[in-house]
Amino acid sequence: MKRLALLALLLVLALLAYRGSRAACTCAEARAAQGWCEACAVGYVGPLELRSRGLFDALDLHGHDIEAAALECAGCRAALAADGYCAADGRGFLAGRAYLSPLAYHLARGETAAVERELDVVRRAVLEAQRCELCAEAMVSNGTCPRCLLRYQDGVASPVARGGS
Ligand SMILES: [Zn+2]
Ligand SMILES: [Zn+2]
Ligand SMILES: [Zn+2]
Questions:
Q1: How many Cβ atoms from other residues are within 10 Å of residue 49's Cβ?
Q2: What is the pLDDT of residues 59-109, one digit of tens each?
Q3: Are 144 and 161 in contact (CB under 8 A)?
Q4: 99, 106, 120, 162: which could form a disulfide with 111 (CB 3.0–4.6 Å)?
Q5: Following DSSP, what letter does each residue of 54-99 receive, concatenated?
Q6: What is the Å distance from ligand 3's center to 146 Cα?
Q7: Ligand 2: distance of its center to the CA of 73 in Å?
Q8: What separation in Å is there between the alpha carbon of 148 and the centre of ligand 2?
Q9: Model confidence at 1, in pLDDT bands (50, 70, 90)?
Q10: Nearest listed ligand to the Cα of residue 24
């Protein structure tokens, strides 16, 4: 009987160790704070659930502290001073912080209509990620896919000339 109790105890300990070795599910917090749950490999962006970590990271929904002196782009410096948006780089500024995707910027400003528009782009990017994840990332950050040589602006692709910038 004593042996059985010991066995049961060992079993419980093993189970606890097994559970502890895996990342705990943080979906509840992630859903509330537009975050990523490591355990379930899912990210939450507004009403959307993203399965692509690359796409989720590209949205970069949190502000970044920046140094004005480190900004090389004149458009960015002007935008920083005016809480504006640099269309050339697809990033905006608010209260001295940088937001690296249009969605992040509009979310920070609480611009509902613009956020809805960007969420539509994200919805399409989720589908696009099944073909090319880099395109999906470029789509939500007004960037360029180096694999497909496509440049994205507001979710619309246009070809990039080889060798050009
Ligand atoms: Zn989870
Ligand atoms: Zn810029
Ligand atoms: Zn691509």
A1: 15
A2: 999 999 998 888 999 999 999 999 999 988 888 999 999 999 999 999 999
A3: no
A4: 106
A5: HHHHHH--S-EE--GGG---HHHHHHHHHT-EETTTTEEEETTEEE
A6: 7
A7: 5
A8: 24
A9: low
A10: 1
Cβ pair 86, 75 in contact under 8 A: yes
Lowest mean pLDDT among 18-27, 107-116, 117-126: 18-27
- pLDDT, tens digit, 9 for 90 and up, residues 34-47: 999 999 999 999 89
Starting from the CA of residue 143, give the closest ligand: 3
What are the structure tokens assigned to 86, written together?
């640099």
- Rounded Cα–Cα distance for residues 6 and 66 (Å): 57
Residue whose pair of structure tokens reads 């097994």 in the numeric block: 18
Q: Please identify every residue whose CB atom is under 5 Å from ligand 2, which is an ion.
A: 73, 75-76, 86, 88-89
Q: Which distant-in-sequence residues (6+ apart) come within 8 Å of 92 by Cβ?
A: 79, 84, 85, 86, 98, 99, 102, 104, 105, 106, 108, 109
